[in-house]
From TrEMBL:
InterPro entries: Ammonium/urea_transptr (IPR029020), Ammonium_transpt (IPR001905), Ammonium_transpt_CS (IPR018047), NH4_transpt_AmtB-like_dom (IPR024041), RhesusRHD (IPR002229)
Membrane spanning stretches: 23-45, 52-74, 114-134, 141-163, 175-196, 208-228, 234-259, 271-289, 295-316, 328-350, 388-409
Protein name per the record: Ammonium transporter
This protein's record includes keyword Transmembrane helix: yes
Organism for this UniProt entry: Dovyalis caffra
UniProt xrefs under SUPFAM superfamilies: Ammonium transporter
Amino acid sequence: MDLPAGLYTDEGSPEWMNKADNAWQLTATTMVCLQSVPGLVILYGSMVKKKWAVNSAFMAFYAFAAVLVCWVLLGHRMSFGAKMSPVLGRPGAALSEIYLIRQSRWGMVPMADFVFYQFAFAAITVILLAGSLLGRMNFYAWMLFVPLWLFFSYTVGAATIWGDGFLERYLIDYAGGYVIHLSSGVAGFTAAYWVGPRHAHDRQNFPPNNIIHMLGGAGFLWLGWTGFNGGSPFSAGLVASLAIFNTHLCTATSLLMWVSLDMVIYKKSSVIGAVQGMITGLVCITPGAGIVEPWAAILMGVMSGSVPWYTMMVLHRRSAFFQSVDDTLAVFHTHAVAGLLGGILSGILAKPALLRLMYPHTTYHTGLIYSFSEEKHVEGFKQMGAQLVGAVFITAWNAVATSIICILISRIVDLRMKDDDLEIGDDAVHGEEAYALWGDGDRMPKTLRLRMHPRLPSFCQRQV
């Protein structure tokens, strides 16, 4: 490949590239990827009933690989390429070396950083969506669903809000409260409607198979969010530092709020509830992490630990509408509700000075509460209007696009597994079990009962 003369210094780096920013961006991207693999793989595989552990983990594992290939072949340019319409870029591959080593559209880093970082966002969105479908979706249908949803649903949200679409100049979405979380929550709930419910027994009795591993997966998700929100400025600067601080402050507050409500109302602290509170805190702070003050992050944590708790623990149980759709891991509440809440609160709490620091050429208006102190209340209400319009658009597009995709796939393969397979679980779908030394309920063959390592002393021998 011939490169322009003088493009590189003696050290082999482009003159425009900031090495510190590049190093941080590669680190942040790796952290976001770790949220999915192994984070959500472990979380999903542990949070479901034992017979669905393999299938749930593998849905996430497959999606991560499939999204990467689809992203570089078409998805990235559809999201961030030359505009084909106000909501979509022109399809094309992001594989050219010349394209990947040029300066990114954001920051002083190579385009390769931008492409891969945005892939990590796309991948985790699809995997979060999968949480609504665990325990019954036909894996062949899932294999078709992932690329179709990426191309015709996710790319539209990314292009519209981040890729120079019609909302980018108006809607505040720092790191994906709408593009990622509102999208995955609405799409997951919609797909759950079309796929249908789990087996009746599973829906009534669905305990996690390993709570300790569940906490480990949740830990990957929490700490990985450092890269999720810290990497969004594409520089190792002040905004990244503030965003990381706000992220963990909001998350801890939300977790404590959720656990407190559980203890007050149900007289018992729930580990699963603590994880849900952690997730809602992470989601809520995401659209405003680098543009709100720490006191606002605490307020957002209080709201994210209480509003989704109410919609999940109270409203969901009383609503025939919510009861009619089997959202396995309550993705609608933890992501759609928390993401919408974060987007609205960002419009209220965004500090003008921080907006200008993050977006030097901003066209955003001020946060609503600051608009009154600066006597710019009209601008504050305009910003709130933009936040609400964006929420309506993302919700409507994902509901419609996901429905069309599910209907199309149902014409090719069944969306839901057969009832017989639903009773068996992993062994019927993949021929494998998560925790099987020998089959569930089977006695160890007599010839194996006394089989042991020949060097073990006799007192270590145990007959089954």
